[in-house]
Amino acid sequence: MVGGGYTKETGEETLKKGNADLIAYGVPFIANPDLPKKFENNIPLNLPDQSTFYSGGPKGYIDYPTDEKNF
Fold first, then answer.
1. Which tens digits make up the pLDDT trace of 3-32?
2. Which one of 15, 32, 42, 70 is most buried, by most CB atoms within 10 A?
3. How far apart, in Å, are the Cα atoms of 27 and each of 10, 63, 71?
4. Distance between CA 56 and CA 71 in Å, rounded?
5. pTM of the predicted structure, to 2 decimals
6. Is 3 strand, coil or helix?
7. Residue pair 16/22 in contact by the 8 Å Cβ criterion
8. Alpha-carbon distances of 49 from 8, 14, 32, 33, 60, rounded to whole Å
9. Measuring CA to CA, which residue among 18, 45, 26, 47 is closest to residue 34?
10. 60 HSE (CA, 13 A, CB side)
11. Which residues sit opposite 24 in a β-bridge?
């Protein structure tokens, strides 16, 4: 398992090369609760608002929009 700064493309390349069995997507998942579907359908990702990370409230963790209309 590897993580840290991977994009869809770099993650796929790492898996193809056999350098990992699993890619961890931390920050992209925070901003994109539907990340697997966005990767699968090549939908642009929401940008994370890092000023809300670890702020003690729900802002920035549960209020990012999903792109259900494209699934």
1. 999 999 999 999 999 999 999 999 998 899
2. 32
3. 15, 14, 22
4. 32
5. 0.78
6. strand
7. no
8. 20, 27, 11, 14, 6
9. 45
10. 11
11. 3
Instruction: Give per-residue pLDDT as tens, 39-52.
Output: 999 999 999 988 88
Residue in 16, 28, 27, 19 with CA at minimum distance from that of residue 1: 19
Q: Distance between CA 15 and CA 29 in Å, rounded?
A: 19
DSSP string for 20-55 = -S-EE-HHHHHH-TTHHHHHHHTPPPPPP-GGGTTS
CA distance 66 to 3: 23
Q: How far apart are CA 40 and CA 64, in angstroms?
A: 19
Give the Cα separation of 45 and 53 in Å (integer).
18
